[in-house]
Specification:
alpha+beta; 8 helices; 9 strands; DNA-binding
DNA sequence: GCAATTGCATGATTT
DNA sequence: AAAATCATGCAATTG
């Protein structure tokens, strides 16, 4: 798993992940879309803003999972240049990609009603919940499990091949993405600095076993949800978190020093490193998720989009995702 | 000196 | 009406 902090380093690696995003969200695939899928994040830096028209959604049952497995396999075989020596090899396993894609869809409906009960699709977007000021606790049913689907997905899929990217680079040419936060992390210790690149993913993180482990890890829960503001998505890369949810679900901040939070990206094979801290504010605190610029940029998040943080209850691991706003059609009777 | 980052204050909004 | 929360701008600090 690549590891990135959210600094505003920018550069080629961001594009690579956006290419991967595009692959994961590829609308041409015969992929089950039980719910409309955000499409804006799939495009590159020149993509239109996040208000792209929604794809016509055809509810499909999960009997289509096997078809989607094939879809990912075919994605792998179609997109690999036979002679790519310098291409960045993400080697993302299809099970992981499918898992993330499934999560992406499923979490639009955290409670996930059965298909036969489907109503006109109501995305859980901030615009639909003007009263919901970002509090996860006001968000209805928040948890979901992944364990039941894990064996079928993870153990039967071959590893996917490299995903071709537009701009080929040798891994050693990629920018380092672990920067200041590491320095901060080790400022008061003599721990050796570690550096990683995003060009290749550690083998140990790509195996079907690790995927199965991830999927089998149990229950995930939405612990924080926030509609991003203009200042959140500004150049600073600093997101103000809802105090209530931060205090309830994120690690307690006993000192002024920031806490480094590692959060797996729900869509990309990346672990983001954020600096979680607070500011004193009047008699209270403001909770800040710092170093989020790269995450925001990679996902093309803008004001109005939604940040969602999940927690894996067992190991206390976090997963983060940005939800693009979709203006849904209301033609459905 | 400049750009990036960090810390804080203030005012608007919500509870 | 008061308190709490949060968005935002700006000054200070750091690299």
């Amino acid at each position: 798993m690549g590891q990135m902090d959210g600094g505003d380093g920018g550069g080629g690696h961001q594009y690579h992940y956006q290419a991967l995003l595009a692959a994961v969200h590829q609308q041409t695939l015969p992929f089950p879309h039980p719910l409309p899928v955000p499409t804006g994040a799939a495009a590159g830096p020149d993509a239109p803003p996040h208000n792209a028209a929604p794809q016509p959604s055809t509810p499909r049952s999960f009997a289509d999972w096997s078809a989607s497995t094939s879809a990912f396999t075919s994605l792998a075989t179609q997109s690999i240049p036979a002679t790519s020596t310098n291409a960045v090899h993400y080697s993302i396993s299809p099970c992981y990609a499918f898992w993330t894609h499934y999560m992406l869809n499923k979490n639009v409906y955290p409670s996930f009603p059965p298909p036969q009960e489907e109503q006109p699709h109501q995305l859980r977007l901030a615009n639909n919940h003007p009263k919901d000021a970002g509090s996860a606790s006001s968000f209805g049913v928040d948890s979901f499990t992944t364990a039941s689907m894990a064996p079928n997905i993870c153990t039967h899929m071959p590893p996917i091949g490299p995903i071709s990217v537009k701009e080929e680079k040798k891994p050693e040419d990629l920018p380092r993405v672990v920067k200041r936060s590491d320095e901060l992390e080790t400022r008061n210790s003599s721990v050796e600095r570690h550096s990683e690149t995003v060009g290749t993913l550690p083998e140990s993180k790509q195996s079907p076993e690790s995927c199965a482990t991830k999927l089998n890890s149990g229950e995930y829960q939405v612990i924080l949800r926030k509609e991003l503001t203009k200042s959140d998505v500004g150049n600073v890369g600093r997101i103000v978190l809802p105090k209530k949810d931060a205090e309830a679900s994120l690690p307690p901040l006993l000192q002024r020093d920031p806490v480094i939070l590692h959060m797996d990206d729900m869509v990309l094979p990346v672990t983001w490193k954020f600096k979680y801290r607070y500011w004193p504010n009047n008699k209270s605190r403001m909770y800040i998720l710092d170093s989020a610029g790269e995450f925001l940029k990679t996902h093309g998040l803008q004001a109005g989009d939604v940040l969602i943080i999940y927690k894996n209850l067992a190991p206390g691991k976090f997963i983060i995702r940005g939800e693009k706003v979709i203006h849904q059609q209301t033609t459905n009777p």
